[in-house]
## 1
Amino acid sequence: MPRKVHDLAKSLGLSSDALIKMLEQIGIKAKGHMSMLTDEEITKIKAKIAEEKRRVKKEFTRFKGPTHIKEKAKKINEEEVRQTVKATLAKIEKGTTKKHYKKEEVVKTPEVKEEKVVEVVDFMTVAEFAQALDVPPSEVIKKCLSLGVMASLNQRLDLDTIAVLCDEFNYKMKVVTIEDQIEQKKEKTAEVIKRPPVVTVMGHVDHGKTTLLDAITKLRVAETEFGKITQKMAAYQISYNDKLITFLDTPGHKDFTTMRARGAQVTDIVVLVVAADEGVMPQTIEAIDHARAANVPIIVAINKIDVPRANVNLVKSQLAKANVIVEDFGGKSICVETSALKNIGINDLLDAILVKAEELNLVAPINTNAKGVVLEARREHGRGNVCTVLVQEGILRRGDAFVCGPQAGRVREILNENMKRVEQANPSAPVLVLGFDGLPQTGEIFMVVDDERQAREIAYQRELMERSRKMKSKTAKVTLFDLQEKIKSGEIKELKIILKADTAGSLEVLDEKLQELKMEDTQINIIHKGVGKINASDVLLAQVTDSICVGFHVGPDTEALETAEKEGVEIRTYRLIYEALDDLRSAMVGLLEPKMQEILIGEGEVREIFNIPKIGMIAGCYIKDGKVIRNAVVSILREKKEIARTKILSLKRFKEDVREVAAGYECGIGFENVPELQKGDILQFYKIEEADSKEGE
């Protein structure tokens, strides 16, 4: 009977890729792993395999005799060599007893002292530092006093102080993280086992992601045997063909990127859902860019194939333009046609996931401390702090001490989907964990440690480090100037950009012009592009990919501004295309200079217009987004076109002068050059600041 490529390969003990290559050799065309093979083709394949076995056996028999002769000759030659070497050494030894040579003066080379290196972490105590140096704590305290630092045994030292002390003790300092120290204690020869794949379903709004997940959950069997989790826990497992698959129920791309921003690479496979009647949409492109930035393989699920306007081939063509080439078009991305409502192609999709998981050879260490990532955190009445944890390494057991970000605790309970206790959780299993001291953030790394004392010590150190980070100046970690310096030093060879524009036409033109800015050794790499304001998801993607956000006739929304300030990502906005091109070109060749730039800080709407004697016209405005500040530059838009540009002279609320007004409030604005305003005009507020690599940071 006809069989799929991956199914036949499994029965023959081959990989799908190996079988596809064999099919090419015997002239059978197979588009990919999901292609069907006829009975006649299967017979040819089996005959080819049998022929190969006979040929190999014949070759082995042919060279069996001569091999023995060669081995014998090899042994004889080795014996002759040994005898010759023995005789030569005897002659040399005999000759040295008769001959006398003038003793040459040997010039002694000065011994090079091996550089002593000590591993340190930020905010370690005096006692811990003394132990790392292998010196008495009193010696460290004496050195601290000589440097003018009053220190006790349990005093914590910052990195600057530690660096000075290392010089005093003639040690070279090597800074390691707490995670590095924990990893070093793990067994290097840890036993590994195969683990289920972790799958995230992404795509455009209303393309059927939720319905597809609902259709998949109906196939779950023997749920209580595996302790699987429902969608309420942000993740769950299904059993298909006696194999487990873990699905993440993530709300959107922001959560997908937030986890990566905290160092948690959770997803193994992305299922990209595209509606057959609508095709590739903006969020589809965004999902592709996020998956590609995370270097995660994509399986395409073309959904809603049962609707009258479905056009599967058009969708595949659109995907090819987005650089996702399916197997039918000669690419490597598996494509499955589905209808979630009519339960069509669901089994094929699960087969494709298992095939891709087999290719990835997903394994996890088992005889080591458990490690995972927090998918969801909440506080429940009667249970306290409850977190959904996806176990990635080791086996999580009740009673384990753990640390998660600045939080610590001991595992009081592990719950399954029926809220019943389970004793342990294996890799790729999502479980509810009780026992957190506080609520961690989504995406925080969950690590089991040796004891509760160590967990609290690590959590406290992390709290100090977080506090120190917040106290430092809020500077951009990823700025155009920083990237320029890295390009000049040869550290990086590309300038990564998140590009947003006001219209699709502007975006296309700017994208084309930026791609032409290739230098000899450097090029521009547009990680993601889209129409609309720069949002928080764009900023997070820029943070994890070391990119900058560039807006053309658009700026960031309020959440994006806050995220950029927190994560240290630079946002640059431009109104003229040549300004953007000049800046980026200068950065690539190392000639970028500080300049004054406009930063969009808010947006308002004109609700009323008042003419006040001796003062003039005042616009009664409602602030829709961001904020407005006194002396800001204002761009006045009517029907999405700029009609005037001026400056704010006065800003009032209820007859009182104020410095700024936030979103959600009304205010009165007076302008420098009074424009011809109308009700409904949109006001965009900009602040002017110097983009400086040093002083501006």
## 2
Amino acid sequence: LMLLSPDAPVGADFAQWYGMADTVLDLEITPNRPDCLSMRGIAREFGAVLDSPPAPLPTADITEQGASIDSAATVSITEPALCPRYAARLIRNVKIGPSPQWLAQRVIAAGARPINNVVDITNLVMFETGQPLHAFDYDRIAKDASGRAAIIVRRATEGETITTLDDVERRLNPSNLLITDPSGPITLAGVMGAENTEVTDNTTTIFLEGAIFDSATTSRTSRGFALISEASLRYERGVDIEYTPTAIDRAAALMAQLAAGQVAPGMIDEYPRPYERPTLTLRESAVQRLIGEPIPIDVCAASLTKLDLEVSTSTPGTLAVVIPAFRPDLLREVDLIEEVLRLWGMERISPTLPTGNGHAGGLTSAQQLTRRVAATLRAAGLNETITLPFGNPRDYAALGMASGDGAELVELHNPMSADQSVLRSLLVPNLLSAVSLNLRQGTKDVQLFEIGDVFTTADGRKQPKEVQRVGAVLAGSFNPPGWNDPAVPLDFYDGKGIIELLVRELCVGRYRLVAAADGAWPFLQPGRSADIVMAGQTVGWLGEVHPRVLRFFAIDEPVTAFEFNLSAFLKAAQASRPFASPSRYPSIDFDVALVVDESVEAETLLQRIRTLGKKTPLFAVRLFDVYRGTGITPGKKSLAFSFSYRSTDRTLTAAEVEGVHHNLIEKLCKATEATIRA
């Protein structure tokens, strides 16, 4: 419950009466516009768009008192490349306490948490100007021999530690930049202060810092320690080095006003690398050439002036534009043209067709075949998916291939998470994760494929090896169960059928599946896996995933998967299907059952039959039955084949076909030690 004052008007809008009525703009700023990470920058942008100059920030009216800051502190910068400017003010006799209501509300509206009047002032000024500030308890900074607080900006030493404001001790290395005193670190530069100099309720003297730190160094430090703050975000993208003293004066004036502080005369401003404003040239002819509309040069000058750029006319039709520090994104003439265009209005450009030399585009043969692979897989009932090109080393360890597909995994220097710390070397781990996710969401029938790049490396290789592959997973069944159509679980032979469909649609000549050797693919079940061989080269694998792997991915039903090298597959494919006129003459068919050892594969017999039948009128042969049981010796099996003989130019006689067929079977039995089943 909140007790209101007796004069509170009954029935009035509470937020309006209490001073909380406000409009908060929630903006998404692109990384190239650090100037828009401040109220000052956004006001400048709105003023340019609305052609209404924004009101400037209140002038810092400071009454300086007491001994100067030079008698109380010194600053030395040992790494000017990492800290090109360091400015500071000293405010004595401050009274730490809660912020006034208006200040606390503005800090909350900006997304921060009110702490006390001094810290809230530094946050407010940062939100207003884009310049991060840090307040030290001056009395807790170590002094030099002359009794002055000695501030040193330097790199950390290997193994040096700092306890930051979140009460965590962090081990440093030379890539980290520090603000230190003679006793050690007092701030992780641009990221977070240390607890040994933080402002407390007992603080009476404030050493106020406003500095510029190298963007890359701040980014590595903040992300390396997982300390992403409002200050580090601004330092990563760039802070206006020319505005630092103005921001410090604004904060010092507020501390005098709201914390009863006395600002010491003078400001420390170490500026070893002054900013030199570059000058860009803008030509009226270039504006018309790139935009396609004639924009007068005086309109261009007015637009750039609204953005606080210094514009002058050097020669007719040409502008000289001086770029201030708050616009680091303006590097070329085309950047200025972009600024002119967005203020002038893209909707004012007349649409035109681009000119060209009559070049006709099109897909390469490899692109056409790749699209045919995707279309064939979709026609087979699979859904195309796209997964991230990253992987989890634990997934490959679970597959029994800790180093990927015969090569080492490519580790990322700055991964987004531990689960995505390497580049994938196979497609199947991410596809199995997708199956697991779908099963958890209640989708039982999951048939997915992906065409994507995988990456491997090896000792001595400078760049990872990148290969495009096709992977697929089959779980559940293709059809939901019905009263007269039960669901049939997908297995190895469904995957085999899809591979054979691809082979047929892409007209692959030399193709076969060969039983995989034990341990060749440790994530597949022995006896239910095969190598995909094309043109005598193993290009991939097919099989049912091992239960051990399924348990790791939290999958509780069988999964069949295959994966192959797309480039090798396309090399064996043909862009067009060969055509042969069908024969008008009838065929003569024979059925033969052969008894062979269990170790003999039907594929071996089929290949031998096709080889022996090349110079005969053998038109087709197919396996139609496999039998084990009564009448068959244990360790043997019966394979029944159907032979079709046909000529393209005449009708064959039974006598000549019988002779050819008998001779073929005799040679087959001799070569394979098969016998004809009685």
## 3
Amino acid sequence: RRQRQAYAVGSALRSGAGRTAVVLLESLLESATTEGERAQWSSAWVVATTWVEGRPPAHCDALIALGLNLLDAGGPDSPAGLDLLMALASCQFTWGDYQFGRTIADHARERVSFDELPLGHQLTCDMLDLMTGVPGAGSFLSTPWIEDVKLPHLADPSVPIGMAGVLLGWLDQLEACDRIVRRCQEMTREHAGVAATELAIGSMAVIGVERSGSWDLAVQEYARAAQVCIDSDFPAPLPFISLRHAYLMAAQGHHDKCEELRTRALALSPHLSPSVEHLDACVRGLLHLSLGRPADAAQYLAAGAAIERRSGSVISGLTSRFVDHFEALWRLGRSVELGDDLAEFSTLSESMEHPGMLAAAARCAALEVDEQSIDAAFERVTSLERSAPTNVFESARTQLLWGTRLRRAKRKADARSHLLLAEQAFARLSATAWLATTRSELAACGERRHTHPQVWGPLVALTPREFDVAKAAAAGASNSEAAESLFVSPRTVEYHLSNVFRKLGITSRRELATFFGEPS
């Protein structure tokens, strides 16, 4: 009976039946007769509850002691002790207490060398080191570890493939992130029904989409990822997904939609984690900065900085928290308050050799230079931006701030060229609030041209299912192939595809491919 329960746990975790797995594991824990068995089922229970509830166990210290005792004793139960410690470390990473998570991982590494750790544990250790600023962190993430990933890894929710890919995206290694996405897609095409992998693919794929400026496509990807959480009964990632969606709405300046998504995220997070609290503060800060309320923005972003200090994080995650905070205070004439923080941020950027962070630090510094040095300082920023993967939003903000500084220096003719570039980019992104700010600056420079580019991408008109069908067709799938991958009938695909063509005003798959950036 217990062996069948154990098989059922594996099936439940692979298929996404999270609550079923938790119930089964609690039954197995009650019947455990040895410390090794208790560690084995506790490890799986921690993983399952992380995906279902998103919080660490209340008896975390007792579980750490159990894992350490088994590791120190050696013998056949030692691997169960190691797995338990690393499950707890990974849980703390998800929760957002990075320093505590690294402390747990360090206990394991004191007893087992990094090279002897299984792949999933190596990823967890490197991710925790990266978040807490350990020198040389991220080196393992940057290796071609994805080539060693097999189907058992893919089906195991304890192997943090998706988060590892997301952090690679944050490190500006978008090609590596894309390789992981393609590898996961190849395996899921052969072995469907791995819920954790579906979430991993979505969370990684959206990074490049956001950076490239295809924000209408990113909105659909967030909606799709949320639906996977709901369908799979892995609800813990839902608040994070909703807040990432809200972050996009904040960047666009859509107050009501942003607040709706924020409210939903917090309602879905009864146990408010530091990671959710931090992202929420960043969302609110960016929203108020977008809407021209720097004092409110600075208040929320300072709260985000405080959470980073408490959690042991030296980076702001996939947000622009520090540079948003600096810009808000600069607009208030108070950026000197972050002088020491800017020096620390610049030093960290250089030690990590992170192109995006280096450009962000240079932009903050460019806001402070004297009038004679404006162009040289911002030219350095744009040079650094060109060395990093494309980030349309941040590049547009650089052009806006460059133009603003030139306009304040009474160089209106020079300012216009930069402001016009910013206007074009913000219009493409549907960033209506930033677009309004840019046009206000243009008007102050004497620009009387009133153009109103399209500020909503057509893909937002599609339903989630229409979007899935359109994406598959754009990638070259036939109706039958799309039907097989989406678990619907070819007739259903045909129905949705006709709606897609009507809404987008097109008549062929060749035209459809252009909306997704696919070669036609």
